[in-house]
Amino acid sequence: MLDPVRAKLKMVGTTAGAFAGGILVATGLDWTAGSHAAVLQTTPRPGSAEVRPVAEMSEAFIRIAESVTPAVVAIETESSGGGEDAENPRGRQRGFPFPFPMPEGQQDRPEESSGSGFLIAPEGYIMTNNHVVAEADVINVVLSDNRHLRARLVGRDPLTDIAVIKVEGGTFPSVRLGRSEGVRIGEWVLAIGNPLDLGTTVTSGIVSAKGRTLNNLIGQSAGANGRWAIEDFIQTDAPINPGNSGGPLVNLRGEVVGVNSAIASPTGFYSGYGFAVPIDLARKVGDDLIRYGRVRRPAVGIQVSNVTPEDAEVFKLQRIVGVVVQDFPPDSPARDAGVRQGDVIVAVNGQTVERVGQFQRLIATRQPGETVTLDLIRYGSRQQVRARLTEAPSQPAEPRPARQAAAPTASKLGIAVSAVTPELVRRYELEGSQPSVVITQVERFGVGDRANLGEGLRILAVDGQTVPDVEAFRRAVERKRAGEVISLRVLLPAGEGSIYNVRLPE
Fold first, then answer.
1. Which residues are within 8 A (CB) of 315 and not within 5 positions of it... i.e. 6 or more apart?
2. Cβ within 8 Å of residue 89, ≥6 positions away
3. Please, which of 71, 242, 386, 434 could form a disulfide with 95 given CB 3.0 to 4.6 Å?
4. 415-503: what fold?
């Protein structure tokens, strides 16, 4: 059976041969002499144009493997306790990325774990995944030349799944870090690892997608740490298997563009695609861990959501891209700079913003104290503000309460509302005294349910008009026609504000 690299090279060779053959047919080359039917020479000759692209790609893979693999290490950890990791409640599993469980019967003892890593500096600094070293009491590193060294933990960051460890013993080979911002979908990449049971492994594939969030794919957040978790993964079909997590994802220039972190699989083994932390983010996290022992996380002070088609209609956007400003924590730099609820941020320092994960990453790669320029659209008017970043709290905030579904209702929105009463204040632990109505029921699979409206949300305004009582809310909703978008300004039980733009059914 062909390995993945040879299989792909064979495919490239076939494609190149077919392409070259098409050129020959089109230009009339290599036709036999005489008046008989022309015969095309289709067998590639050594050194011919058909073979050269395949040989060049093969040589590129070889050069990359030879230059990068000496800096890729195997990591084995030991822990005195068998308890679960606080950041990974599923517990550690040998050489396997969070949050995907190993197949039944294939878990190793929780006291041992393994993975890969790569040297990022000749002084012995090694980058790997947080989940590889999360509970380690002892960290052992095996270099490509089979040297076994004891490593110390420099720092780790559960929110990005990045950690840095260090070995001593002279000067070490190290990788060359590239830029993940310029990575393109369809670009060839190599995933390199050093599983203890196998040794160095190199697999190839392409970048399948960018900006992936694991909760969109498997229904849960990889970081599982609330609002400060950053998910903006590079997706690749280069095979990644247990023990490879923490290894580098490398482009055809031999530059590291990502840190292999997870695979999506129902069995625990490779089944089509894996995920890597972009190196632009990993580099910033690694630099902070080396310099400060922790990540100094910058904060612009806003809560955002992805733009929906309904948002684009309400906010007069030409394209369905950007992030909608929903609310501000106390002492928000963005609010102080003039950003308002409902603004749509479309660029940070001139770099286009299309989704939440990308916006988070663009902010996260900066440092507290830096000033960023935000391009935003305010109901069709493009504006620009400058905000000075602060440092985010070291402890992640508590996640919002999960919404609950309830019995059917007759409202166009599929919800029932009530005046705020002392009993409802106690039931939903409501905060704030603004005039409003509170959602008490949500029709399952209804419009409100699909828009993530839930019990305990307080509706402050409809289409910009306050709704101090149930009758005012009813009139505001009834004015809307089927198919129109209704804009709700709501207050969450914990006192945070948000905007829900919902399209009524036809």
1. 307, 324, 342, 344, 377, 378, 379, 380
2. 224
3. 242
4. Pdz3 Domain (2.30.42)
pLDDT for 495 equals 75
CATH 2.40.10.120 boundaries in the chain: 68-295
- Looking at the DSSP assignment, which residues form a beta bridge with residue 150? 140
Q: Give the DSSP H/E element, type plus range, for residue 155.
A: strand 148-157
Please state which of the ranges 263-277, 371-385, 440-454 shows the lowest mean pLDDT: 263-277
131 catalytic residue (yes or no) = yes
**Looking at 79, 85, 113, 131, which residue is catalytic?**
131
The fold adopted by the segment(s) 68-295 is: Thrombin, subunit H (2.40.10)
Per-residue model confidence as pLDDT tens digits over 232-267: 789 998 877 767 889 999 999 999 999 998 665 544
Mean per-residue pLDDT over the chain, rounded: 78
User: What proportion of the chain, given as a percentage, has pLDDT over 70?
Assistant: 73
Q: What is the 3-state secondary structure (H, E, C) of 30-91?
A: CCCCCCCCCCCCCCCCCCCCCCHHHHHHHHHHHHHHHHHHHHEEEEEEECCCCCCECCECCC
Closest CA to 123 of 154, 148, 160: 154
Is 245 annotated in the active site? yes
Structure tokens at 15: 């494609």
Is 78:136 a contact under the CB 8 Å cutoff? yes
- State mean pLDDT over 52-74: 87
**Is the overall model pTM greater than 0.85, yes or no?**
no
Catalytic residue among 85, 157, 161, 327: 161
Range list for CATH 2.30.42.10 in the chain: 298-391, 415-503
pLDDT tens column, 34-47: 333 333 344 455 55
Q: How is residue 406 annotated by DSSP?
A: B
Q: Indicate if 197 belongs to the active site.
A: no
Catalytic annotation, pick one of 114, 180, 208, 245: 245
What is the token pair recorded at 298?
Answer: 């910058």
Please enumerate in sequence order all residues whose Cβ is within 8 A of that of 45, keeping only pairs 6 or more positions apart, or say none.
51
